[in-house]
Amino acid sequence: MQIGYNVGTTLERSALEQDLKFCEESGFDLIELEWDKSLTEYLEEHSLSELRTYFDDHRLKPLSLNALASINNRADAEEDEVVRKFEKMAEAAETLGIPYIVVTPLRTETKLTRGEIQASCVRVLRRLSDISAPKGVRIALEFVGEPEYTVNTLEQSLAIVEETARDNVGATFDFFHFHAMNSKLETLREADPQRIFIVQLSDAPDYVPGMLKEHEDRLWPGQGVMRSEEMLNVLREIGCQAAFSVEVFQKEYDKLSVEEAIRTAYETASKLLERTPSKPVIF
Fold it and tell me: Where is the Xylose isomerase-like TIM barrel domain (predicted)?
């Protein structure tokens, strides 16, 4: 069983060098990098080749590059800009040996039909797939469990992945987003396990669907009201071999040092996963 850490958990008060050090010391096997701040700041004084050497020489390995945001239902010029940004991310992912790039949907107050959203997502994902497939990089679409996001349930994301029909396009299964908009366990039971690329762990307080906010309400794994063990059991039953990663945003946790936060992330995730052992990860 391999466990990863998403650097977004301490993004605003840490730096990549700290994250790498504390993740390895805490026991994490994998790390999810962040493009816009963490990696960009690192590259001000270092190079991609230096970071690749670090991963080659250490037990800690990269899991994903996060995140290409707002990919769908954009004006033509904006969509082209999204694609250009992805090209740079895919080049970096190839250099660093990162298997996945996470992409997220548009957040908007504009009313769009399900068909409009799906058609746009499929078109963009196919464009991105054409870029990343030759580089050996996969794309993990992450639905976001808030009403304003255009893709906000597991059902919707899997339908998009299925229609996209590219081997290197799959889904990110995030516990918080699954819980936040009341996605169905039956959908997970019927999912193709090969299409679930990453599983992100967290928990949540007891708010009704549609009220949870991911940058305010995420809790450490196993510390809230989610049916976490049931979700993990279903993932195991369907034969999902995706890597697990901890992603938590919670202002209360900012009182912890970066080292304490990363250690707590590992300890809470480990305790939860030990109760529902998984099969080895295969990228």
Answer: 21-262
Domains of the chain and any CATH numbers? 3-274 (3.20.20.150)
Going 118 to 85 to 9 to 95, the CA torsion angle's sign is positive
Residue 233 backbone phi and psi in degrees, to 5: -65, -40
3-state secondary structure of 257: coil
Q: Distance between CA atoms of 140 and 240, rounded to whole angstroms?
A: 15
Over residues 94-131, the pLDDT tens digits come to 999 999 999 999 999 999 999 999 999 999 999 999 99
226 neighbors 181 (Cβ within 8 angstroms): no
pLDDT value at residue 277: 57
In the prediction, which pLDDT does 283 show? 44
- Are 148 and 108 in contact by the 8 Å Cβ rule? The answer is yes
In 37-79, beta strands by DSSP E: 61-68
DSSP code of residue 107 = B
Q: Residue 116 and residue 104: Cα distance in Å, rounded? A: 16
Q: From CA 14, how far away is CA 244, in angstroms rounded?
A: 22
CA gap 182, 191 in Å, rounded: 16
Name the residue with tokens 């994250």: 19
Pairwise CA distance, residues 210 & 146, whole Å: 6
- For residue 259, give the DSSP letter: H
